[in-house]
Write a structure and sequence with these properties.
Blueprint: H1 36-51, E1 58-62, H2 66-69, E2 79-82, H3 88-98, E3 103-109, H4 110-116, H5 118-127, E4 131-137, E5 140-141, E6 147-148, H6 171-178, E7 182-187, H7 191-201, E8 207-213, H8 229-234, E9 236-238, E10 240-245, E11 260-264, E12 270-275, H9 285-297, E13 301-308, H10 315-318, H11 331-334, H12 338-347
Parallel strand pairs: 1-2, 1-3, 3-4, 4-8, 7-8, 9-13
Antiparallel strand pairs: 5-6, 7-13, 10-12, 11-12
The structure holds thiamine diphosphate (TPP), iron/sulfur cluster and magnesium ion.
Length: about 350
């Protein structure tokens, strides 16, 4: 008889850089049970683990709101910066300019982005700053008890019965128009699609705007809300299956020719968008804008990777900066001294 030790713990799963799941996890959430934001944190943990990103090379950023508390609940081994309300874009821009090797992920809310932070948001988008910018979109200010945010749809109602009659800002349309080079929309309850989008964003260099419909179960999950679970599930028009193959995996996928769009990302990874109904080209800006407009007219939202421009130069590249992170340059290289300054002044004579 073989003597088997059934009490021995199973070996822990490690990823391609040899790390266990633990450094990818964060603190215990203090958000409401069932909040869509929690599901998004879980997908972020999975995406970074599965892509084998070293958490020590990541900076987590956020503003203020329930959503902006999320970075405390993922990537515990990474450093983070919880900024003033709506100011994440400027702090994030500074961080990636100071250290171009950092992988930046920001979590914001629809209020943090669309209201107080809109001025900062538009400049982040037009600069194509290399950052994954997630909007956890519940159409309300969850943290301050559920007031309408600028993404609340016309006709959606508060718990008290108050009806919103202001038109919404569509953050994806705005991002595309302003110059973000990777724009996607998903739903917090769609594990597979959100994970695929997050993994693809980790292979893209430039601004990755990911708007995730994320129902607030406490203040905005009732009949009349277009950001409730029930509404989002019934009105989610998927572009089709999004498949993503990282550069470190063998590419062996079979797709029906003519029904799949292949997009190569900057690190060599491949993105496949498989159409269900109509042929959708995520590299066609006008097509993307039309899709967002047409679905919104029908009270639906299109999900998937709506727009991607893999070759667009990101802000750090545009600035033509040195390869080494500025934060690690020695003093003599950042302060050239009087002689060098005199020489420069002389050249203006
Ligand atoms: C300068 C400033 N103004 C206003 C507030 C109040 N405030 C805190 S969070 C918030 C809105 C949060 O909404 P959102 O970004 O959508 O996050 P959610 O809580 O819905 O996830 C507001 C207005 C603040 N903290 N600081
Ligand atoms: S109030 Fe809403 S947004 Fe905030 S944690 Fe609760 S469910 Fe989430
Ligand atoms: Mg919100």
């Amino acid at each position: 008889m073989i003597d088997m030790d059934t009490t021995a713990p199973a070996p822990k799963k490690t990823n391609r850089i040899g790390l266990e799941m633990q450094p990818y996890r964060g603190g215990k959430t203090t958000l409401c049970a069932g909040c869509g934001h929690n599901a998004i944190s879980e997908r972020i943990i999975d995406a970074f683990f599965e892509m084998g990103i070293n958490p020590r090379e990541v900076i987590k950023l956020s503003g203020i709101g329930c959503s902006s508390k999320s970075p405390a609940y993922f990537l515990g081994a990474s450093s983070g910066f919880n900024t003033v309300h709506g100011r994440m874009p400027s702090v994030g821009t500074g961080a990636v300019l100071a250290n171009r090797k950092l992988i930046a992920i920001g979590v914001s809310g629809d209020g943090d982005t669309g209201a107080i932070g809109i001025g900062q948001f538009v400049h982040l988008m037009r600069r194509n700053v290399p950052i994954i910018y997630i909007i956890e979109d519940n159409g309300c200010y969850g943290l301050t008890k559920g007031q309408f945010s600028p993404t609340a749809d016309v006709g959606s109602t508060l718990k008290t019965g108050v009806v919103n009659d202001l038109p919404p800002i569509d953050t994806c349309a705005l991002g595309i128009q302003l110059g973000a080079s990777f724009v996607a929309r998903s739903f917090s309850g769609d594990k597979k699609q959100l994970l695929t989008i997050l993994k693809a964003s980790l292979s893209h260099r430039g601004t990755c705007l990911i708007d995730v419909i994320s129902p607030c179960v406490t203040f905005n999950d009732h009949e009349g809300s277009t950001k409730s679970y029930a509404y989002a599930k019934d009105h989610d028009e998927r572009l089709g299956e999004v498949s993503f193959v990282p550069y470190f995996e063998d590419i062996s996928i079979e797709y029906d020719p003519g029904t799949t769009k292949e997009v190569q990302l900057h690190d060599g990874s491949k993105l496949y968008l498989k159409k269900v109904a109509e042929d959708y080209d995520p590299t066609d800006k006008f097509n993307a804008m039309r899709l967002i407009h047409d679905t919104a007219q029908r009270g639906e939202f299109a999900t998937g990777i709506l727009y991607i421009e893999p070759e667009k130069a990101d802000f750090v590249t545009l600035l033509n900066m040195v390869d080494e992170p500025l934060s690690t340059l020695p003093l003599e290289r950042v302060r050239p001294g009087r002689e060098a300054l005199d020489e420069i002044m002389e050249s203006f004579r």
